[in-house]
Amino acid sequence: MNKVSGARADAHRPSEVLNTLKRLGFGAVVSVPDGWLGEMLVRIEQEPTMRLVRATHEEEALAIACGIRLGGVRTALLVQNAGVLSMGAGMVSLAQRYQFPLLMLVSYRGTPEDPVFYHVPKGRATEPVIEGLGLRYTRTDRERAIGPQVEQAATYAEEASCPFALLLSREDIQW
Amino acid sequence: MVKAARPTRSDYYRALADNLPAEGLVVTSLGNASYLWAALHHAPENFYLEDAMGLALPLALGLAVAQPRRPVIVVEGDGALLMHMGALVTVGAINPKNLTVLLIQNGVHAASGGQALTNAELDLARLARAAGMARADNIDRPDALAARLRASTARDGAEFLALATEPDIEVVKPPVALDPVVTKSRFMAAIGAPRYVPMLFGGGRLEGT
């Protein structure tokens, strides 16, 4: 794996993301893969206390996550921002209308530091669409440890009974 | 497959109500799938979707994963299935043995007034088998549905039953308000889902985790 420039040197941030999910009792992750998320999903699949569900589409993944949370298991959704763009109807009519607390860990492609140029249109649309959907969100701060940021996002989702999206940079999630 | 002289949704729902497995949880799709089930068999263990077309099946899959010891029955429509056909693949890949899919195949978008489907003649049981559900059949009689629901043979995967059904266009008035948050809270209380226990400075957990 190439070394990611600009990453904090004090901790391996993807490990911190996974460790935080485990520590907070997340029993399931539902995902549609992305280049940055791929190895993270393999690691999750190897965790004895977590169940990984690989979905075919992000709106479907959202509904599966709602069903798992309905059944009493804390659940995170790991998707690319393309998935946020394509899950809008389910976001408003299911996850938000029924007030499901879901942690969404979103790989934020198409930002200026993303080397893959064709993600740019998605990057430009992501935050306006999120705001249009009324979805609560924040971008990670690369100067702060990632674990507490994941914990705060997860706590917000539960306290406010709604989905909360944490927009992640490459160094946060690419193993 | 859709054939002539099909039973109604009510016919199948009566068979379901009379043969509901012990501890069963029922997820219903939008429109009359939810409204009629609420009218016939309202219970805290029902999760009624309104709108969110195509998402009853994946939601029920998640519920079956989270509650592996309870039978989960989902009533989905053929139009909704076509909208999220990928969910069939995901159900087949996970294949939870506590999940039963009842697919109302009426050949139309009944909840929105009866518009024609893109393809009303699909062999849905064959599609489900191709997706990985070995126990998939097309059914055209309520007594056949009742027999399948009563069958006590051990299962090693999900069951998928496509029910040839007469379209029901007239909207049934549900006997209870289907407030979404009430529906969710009532359901989670009924199954004993763990509550979220907050902590003053974050780090809250679900009970028991």
Output the radius of gyration of chain A: 15 Å
CATH class of chain B: Alpha Beta
In helices, the fraction of residues of chain A equals 40-55%
Discrete helix count of chain B: 8
Question: What would you call the structural class of chain B?
Answer: alpha/beta
In total, how many beta strands of chain A? Answer: 6
How many domains make up the coordinates of chain B? 1
Shape estimate of chain B: globular
- Report the mean per-residue pLDDT of chain B as an integer: 94
What ranges of chain A have pLDDT less than 50 throughout 5 or more consecutive residues? 1-6
- Helix/strand order of chain A, N-terminal first: HEHEHEHHEHEHEH
Strand order of the largest sheet of chain A: 2-1-3-4-6-5
State the helicity of chain B in percent bands. Answer: 25-40%
Protein topology:
The complex is a heterodimer of chains A (175) and B (209).
Chain A: H1 13-23, E1 28-31, H2 38-45, E2 51-54, H3 58-70, E3 75-80, H4 81-86, H5 88-96, E4 102-107, H6 120-133, E5 136-139, H7 146-160, E6 163-168, H8 170-173
Chain B: H1 9-18, E1 25-28, H2 32-41, E2 46-48, H3 56-66, E3 72-77, H4 78-83, H5 86-94, E4 99-105, E5 108-109, E6 115-116, H6 124-131, E7 135-139, H7 142-150, E8 159-164, H8 180-190, E9 196-197, E10 205-206
Parallel strand pairs in B: 1-2, 1-3, 3-4, 4-8, 7-8
Antiparallel strand pairs in B: 5-6, 9-10
Helix pairs in contact in B: 1-2, 1-7, 5-6
